[in-house]
Amino acid sequence: MESRKRLNLALLLLILVLAAVAYLQPGREGPAPSARLTGLQPAQVTRILIERPGKEDMRLLRKQGWRLEVPVKAAADPSRVAILLDLVQARVQAHFPAAGRDLAPYQLDRPLARITFNETLIRFGGPAPLGRRRYLLLDGQVVLVNDQAFYLLQAGPSAFIATRPADASEAQGAVSKR
């Protein structure tokens, strides 16, 4: 009876050790931190060019604030520009070299839109079959990122025009000049 207790205790200890090894997986590296889409920081971006087939191009410039310069001149909505700027630091979900691949399944053979941050060109392809992700082409790599900016690229220039009401001081100045 005593030997049975010892055997059960030894087996229980062995099971606990094996469970700890399976759970902790010693010697295996943790997942690599996901890479960022570009090395740019949003604060470094001073020019954004949006090109869409069959639609007019849009150009935004950072001066004292963001301004839409083409096709119309107007103050840009900071929250809309922030959505675009988040793209430069988007986490890459997956990537593979584009060289020698048929890009048609990703709709990157004829991109749906192009956006250039300063000198960094990103081409937009189609959505991934699962999840809210989209294929992009950047520096010879097909990358998969969360799809947060494409809808905005498809919108017209009016989507980027600031709609905030005039500041009280601006309104006061306009009234006093009459």
Keywords, please?
single chain, 178 residues, alpha+beta, 9-stranded antiparallel beta sheet, 4 helices, elongated, disordered C terminus
Could you explain the architecture of this structure?
26% of the residues lie in helices and 27% in strands. It has a 9-stranded antiparallel beta sheet. It has 4 helices and 9 strands, in the order αββββαβββββαα. By secondary structure, the protein is an alpha+beta fold. It is elongated and about 90 Å long. The chain has a domain of 122 residues. The C terminus is likely disordered.
Rounded mean pLDDT score: 86
Distance from N terminus to C terminus (CA atoms, Å) equals: 105 Å
What percent of residues are in strands? 25-35%
Query: Any idea what the shape is?
Result: elongated
User: Roughly how many Å is the radius of gyration?
Assistant: 26 Å
Helix content: 25-40%
Largest sheet report? 9 strands, antiparallel
Low-confidence stretches: 166-178
The string of secondary-structure elements, in order, is HEEEEHEEEEEHH
Structural class: alpha+beta
Strand order of the largest sheet: 4-3-2-1-6-7-8-9-5
Counting H and I runs of at least 4 residues, what is the number of helices? 4
Q: Count of DSSP E strands?
A: 9
